[in-house]
Each structure stands twice: as C-alpha cells, then as structure tokens.
Specification:
With 67 residues, this protein is mostly helical. It has helices spanning 9-18, 23-35, 49-66.
Length: 67
C-alpha cells in the first residue's frame, strides 16, 4: 500500500478518487486526510449507510472546492 503520510494533499485526493471502490484503501486514505485536519468532526458508529454516503460526498465536495 502507498505511504499515505508522505503524500501531498493533491496526491491524497487523487488516491481517494482512484481507490473509491476499494473499501480498505479508501478508509485508510480518508483517515489520513481527516487526521490532517484536527478540527474534523467525529461521527457516530451507528450511522446508516445512506448517512455515511452523504457525509463522504459532502467531504469530497469540500475537498474539490479547495483545489
């Protein structure tokens, strides 16, 4: 697996996009991305898959707006 900690923000975003169908890789990359923002929100573990999908889409849109 790629060394996510050494990636630039742009590289990490591309990695997320490239691995969006690989649950393990996407989860690790998203964790790295969120760890870089200490103000990130903590979500409950019992969220429905629809809620999780919505949150992920919102985060991706936020990231794309920063580019």
């Amino acid at each position: 697996m790629a060394n996510l900690k050494d990636m630039t923000l742009s590289e990490l975003k591309k990695y997320l996009s490239d691995h969006r169908n690989d649950d393990e890789a996407f989860s690790e990359a998203m964790g790295e991305l969120l760890s870089r923002n200490r103000n990130s929100k903590i979500y409950p573990a019992n969220m429905s898959s629809e809620e999780v999908g919505r949150v992920i889409q919102e985060k991706i849109q936020q990231i794309q707006q920063k580019d």
